[in-house]
């Protein structure tokens, strides 16, 4: 069970590291996206656009190197809850903006985005719950394997989400 928890933590770690760095790679585009939502005042939105990717990377690294077992998971749940609430607000307000969750500009926020966030939030909740139940450590080899499994799970997840989002965009463009 310990290796499963580690794989789950590593999946979340890679997710946040990738998401943060992909936003940092196109920070001006991401900043413009955040500001364009008009969800918050301009200065707060602009500051948040620079702060969020750094926070994501820090949470991801904390999950990966196991700094404070539970705190990164709690922060993950808080951040994912905020993201999910924001996505729900976008859908309810019928605002049409690009997701930019993983640095992609062409993907529009949709129900797929909401489902993806709810799924990731549920995984983070399971990881936190398991963190209270699973005791003990794992060997160095198992730790290396769990990092690799987490990265593999993330790559498959990301590919699946991108395919689903593109298919959703194509179907909506045809209607």
Short description:
This protein is an all-alpha fold and 175 residues long. It contains six helices and no strands. The protein has helices at 2-25, 27-36, 42-65, 71-92, 111-133, 140-174.
Give an overview in words.
This protein is an all-alpha fold. It has one domain (2-174). 79% of the residues lie in helices and 0% in strands. The chain has helices at residues 2-25, 27-36, 42-65, 71-92, 111-133, 140-174. Helix 1 packs across helix 2, helix 1 (2-25) packs antiparallel against helix 3 and helix 3 (42-65) packs antiparallel against helix 4 (71-92). The protein is globular, with a radius of gyration of 17 Å. The mean pLDDT is 85.
How do the strands and helices of this protein lay out in sequence?
Layout: H1 2-25, H2 27-36, H3 42-65, H4 71-92, H5 111-133, H6 140-174
Shape: globular
Number of domains: 1
The description of the largest β-sheet is: none
**Poorly predicted residue ranges:** none
Helical content stands at over 70%
Distance between the termini: 46 Å
Supply the helix-strand structural class: mainly alpha
Number of DSSP helical runs: 6
Mean model confidence by pLDDT? 85
| CA radius of gyration | 17 Å
SSE pattern: HHHHHH
Strand content: under 5%
Total strands: 0
Question: Which tags fit this structure?
Answer:
175 residues, mainly alpha, 6 helices, 0% strand, globular
